[in-house]
Write a structure and sequence with these properties.
139 residues, alpha+beta, elongated, disordered C terminus
Length: 139
């Protein structure tokens, strides 16, 4: 549950929830603080919340390795997915996740294929889609 505290003329919303790092924001109004807290708590319950501090130093290569170890163990990847992940790792592996923009992914896909993205290219976002909900509760 969030706590909303008045600090001088501003309002601080703080959320402490098991399985998540503490989240704190300061606002000019109490209503904005409550609104942020309600949304953030809902995102945590839905496992959509991702504290950027957790991923600030993580590279795409690290994410792909973790995805391969954890998800690939349960259901081994086919040749196509393995090739796409390898290509991503070679091209964008050193990029930190906060710097991994849609434009960078689109450029990668364009360089791989002159046509529209194939099923293989769409598979490339699997680790990014799954990492947030699966690993958010483990930090």
């Amino acid at each position: 549950m969030a706590s909303i505290i008045k600090i001088g003329k501003r309002w601080r919303a703080q959320i402490r929830r098991k399985g998540f790092p503490d989240a704190t924001q300061t606002f000019n109004t109490k209503a904005r603080a409550q609104e942020w807290a309600t949304k953030t708590e809902a995102d945590m319950r839905a496992l959509k919340y991702q504290d950027e501090r957790i991923i600030s130093d993580m590279t795409l290569s690290t994410l792909i390795d973790r995805y391969t170890d954890e998800i690939g163990q349960a259901k081994p990847f086919g040749k196509n997915k393995t090739a796409v992940l390898k290509s991503l790792e070679i091209t964008l592996g050193s990029v930190t996740l906060p710097n991994l923009t849609t434009d960078r992914l689109i450029d990668h896909i364009k360089n791989r294929s002159a046509a529209t993205p194939t099923k293989k290219e769409r598979l490339a976002v699997s680790p990014l889609q799954l990492s947030s909900p699966i690993w958010a509760a483990h930090h």
